[in-house]
Every structure is written in structure tokens, then in C-alpha cells.
Amino acid sequence: MHRKPARSARSYGWVVLGALAGFTSPSFVAPLARLRATKSARFAGDKVQPVQPQTGEATGLAIVGAVLGPAVDAIHNQALLRYDLLPVSADLVGCGVARTSILVPPLLAVAYALLGSILPAAAASMIGSCNTKNLPLLSLDPQRRAILAVASTCIIIKASELLLTAGWNGPEALPVLMAMAFLQWASLDGRPFALFLALLAAIGGPLCELPLMWLGAWHYTAPDYWPLAYFGFGPASGAAWAGLSMTTGPCYFAVTTDAIALGRLFRKRQCA
User: Fold this and answer.
1) Phi, psi (5° rounding) for residue 213?
2) Which residue ranges traverse the bilayer (predicted)?
3) What ranges do the domains of the chain cover?
């Protein structure tokens, strides 16, 4: 690759990061919000209460995951992977082709219920639900926070595609995408247990894909992460199912943040 295109690609990537920073800045959400970082679990429009899973909350998250998840997934998969089992595609006039699979709605229904309700309750009981100090945390009601969380997740996921198509490789794109995902958490959540879950999903989420890839559900078109290389399933093994993309980790991080925000919205409405 020539050095000049690489420099322009890097510049483009930092523009994407700057756009997300502006999207979550106080100037963007004012007059809807003001900056606040506090140790309390209280946010504007929220009641102070422990994070506890509820049936209605988990059900609502499962429905959102099954309906909204495939649309977000289609953004991600225009450049990263191909579905081999029960694929579905739609030509988005002027915007490429959206690709997903019939397998995705039930998988994301389970994922959103776990990431937005069940696991946050368990993590909060162990770590606590206080906010971290000195973060650019936006004081928003649950609905606006959830909307911004989903929108910023779409930006991060789209950025993963744009960086790769602009010539970045996985190790170059990974820190930029992680910085974007961390900014999303810092401005829209700010709780250590949510950060712990997002990091756990960033590491464990891609690994959970391996059994489904081994069964032939999908494969990555340009894998750059081979977690099973020690066991003989590296790039030279010919096992396409064992290759992942480094850029999926930040996407799992972002999805966890928006699932938690949606869970808080459902919890608030149940308690109202």
C-alpha cells in the first residue's frame, strides 16, 4: 500500500472519531442536557434504585434485539463478513447492500436480554452502581439517553466498515474504534459495572461466534484475529471458521452500552 493513501485513511478515521465526540458533546445535546459527573446512581428522569432484572424489561429488550438488532447488524456486515446459512440481503439504493441472516433476530434477542437486563443486575450487585467521577457524563432522561446510545452504536459500527474500506487494517482501526466506544460509555453511562460488562463483551463476544462459525453460519471475509492459533487453527490451517476481525470487539462494546441504556429505559417505564 502506498503511504499517501494510508495517511489520508488515517486522517479520515480521526475525522470519524471527532464526529462522534461532537455528537456526544454538550453543545450537541444542549438545551436537552448539561454535563454532570456524580457518585450517585441518579440521572435526570431516573429514580435511585438498584439494578434488578424484571421480566417485562428482559422481554422488551429481546423484542428490540430481534427487530432493531438485524438492522444495525446489516450496517456492520456490508464489509466484514458473509452469511452462509439462511442469508438475507436487501439492495439499499445508493447505499450498498444490507446483509443479515434469519439466524440473527433470535440470537440478538437473547443477547440484548442478557446484556441489557440480566448481566447488568449481576454485575451491579458485585461492583455497585455508582458513577465514576470526572467523566463528561451527560445528564439525560432515559429515553434521550437510549436514543443517543443506539445512534452512537450505529456510528461506531459504520465507522468499523469505513475504516476498513479506507485501507486501515485491524490493528490500526482497533484503538480508534475502542476510543469511540469508550467515549460513548463515558458520556452516556459512566458506571464501572457497565464498563466491565462492555469490556467483557468486547473480548468474549467474538469468541462466542466461533461455535456458530464452525457450524457454517457465517465467515469473515478478511480475518485478522485467530484466537485458536495455539491449537492449530491459525491463518495457515485453512479453517476459515476460526478467523475473526479485530474490529468486532469495539462493536460488541458499543452494543452492550446501548443495551444497558435501553434496559434502563424499560425499567424506568415499568416503575413509573
Assistant:
1) -70, -35
2) 12-33, 107-127, 195-220, 240-262
3) 47-271
